[in-house]
Design brief:
Helix content is 0%, strand content 43%. With 196 residues, the protein is mainly β. It has a single domain, classed as YVTN repeat-like/Quinoprotein amine dehydrogenase (Methylamine Dehydrogenase, Chain H), CATH 2.130.10.10. A hairpin with a 4-residue loop joins β1 and β2. It is globular, with a radius of gyration of 22 Å.
Length: 196
């Protein structure tokens, strides 16, 4: 069943959203990637915010009269990435993955849980970077079993990475054969086969 329980505000205009549900703790985590603004984030980078909601806290009224989810129900953590990201997904074990527009890399971040004040902004640096797509930005998706990260570039290329080591998975597919048929002026067939 789907139900709107209320709303909250992000640091800036939302660029991407990602959610992750932990069955053991019955907690929903939502990662918000936003452009942010100069007061609450970084000047040229991106803001990453995590909103955490425990399922058992939803039993009573969790929103105020305007529909805003109360702070005691929704935990918030704020992070700042120094470089601009076009896409971000929340992974397991306090990890997040982002696609950096400037360096054209996929970055893996460790998001520290030990933030005491919800207003503190923690600067995060990538713990690992992997080469991305040659032509501009990309969108990231995490597989349901959280072992693979998929990136889809604007150029139409698709890459699958292992989330643990950020290595590109080799896809076992047979080469597609193409036949180019060229007939010269004398009528000879100059067919060539090429694998792709």
């Amino acid at each position: 069943m789907f139900e709107v329980i209320g709303y909250t505000e992000a640091a800036g205009s939302v660029v991407d959203l990602s959610s992750l549900y932990n069955k053991d703790s019955k907690q929903v985590n939502v990662l918000v990637l936003s452009a942010g603004n100069k007061e609450n984030c970084v000047k040229e980078g991106s803001c990453l915010e995590i909103f955490m909601l425990q399922a058992q806290l939803l039993k009573g009224g969790c929103a105020d009269r305007r529909g805003c989810i109360r702070d005691e129900i929704l935990q918030k953590r704020h992070y700042a990435a120094a470089q601009p990201l076009s896409s971000a997904v929340l992974g397991p074990n306090n990890r997040a993955f982002g696609y950096c527009i400037r360096t054209r890399t996929i970055q893996k971040f460790l998001l520290d849980e030990g933030i005491s004040d919800t207003e503190d902004i923690v600067q995060v640096t990538p713990e690992r970077e992997t080469e991305g797509h040659a032509l501009g930005s990309a969108s990231l998706l995490l597989s349901p079993h959280q072992l693979w990260l998929v990136s889809l570039g604007k150029d139409g290329s698709l890459c699958v990475f292992e989330t643990s080591c950020m290595r590109v998975l080799e896809l076992d597919a047979a080469a597609i054969q193409h036949v180019y048929i060229n007939i010269d002026e004398a009528g000879f067939n100059l067919a060539k086969r090429k694998g792709r």
